[in-house]
Amino acid sequence: MGEELKVEYTSTVFYVKFGDGSKAFLRYSIEGDKMALIETYTPPQHRGKGVAKLMVDKAVEVAQGRGLKIVPICSYSVQYFLKNPDKRGLLAEPYASMKEEDMKKYFEERLAAEKAKEKG
Q: Residue 49: which domain range?
């Protein structure tokens, strides 16, 4: 592959454009002092290459720079904070103070909700 991936963003989405014309994205919204990470999508041919992580990394960087707390809604963003416990201080409550098992349960709930939405 060897593509240099660059995360760009607008007021509602972080995205990566690929050489094949496809795009990965992370939809978000900002309300008050919170950034909600709503939906992550990576085209099937680009999955498993760390693209979603790059986008959430960028979201975290932007949120930190603006003094925002993060509300993880999409399952990938929840998984990101499970894998990076050192960054949980950036989360809004109640997520910041969730125990590991509660965070895992929340991840499973978000994943189930997304799968139900795909079927519906």
A: 8-119
Number of C-beta neighbours around residue 118 at 10 A: 7
pLDDT digits (tens, 9 = 90+) for 53-107: 999 999 999 999 999 999 999 999 999 999 999 999 999 999 999 999 999 999 9
Residue 63 lies in a domain: yes
Q: What is the count of structural domains for the chain?
A: 1
Number of alpha helices (DSSP H) and beta strands (DSSP E) in the chain? 3, 5
> Token digits for 107?
């991840």
β-strands 8-9, 34-41: how paired?
Answer: unpaired
Instruction: Round to the nearest angstrom and report the end-to-end CA distance of the chain.
Output: 34
Residue 2 lies in a domain: no
The residue with tokens 């454009």 is: 17
DSSP 3-state assignment of 100? helix
Distance CA 43, CA 24 (A): 6
> What three-state secondary structure class fits 33?
coil
3 assigned to some structural domain: no
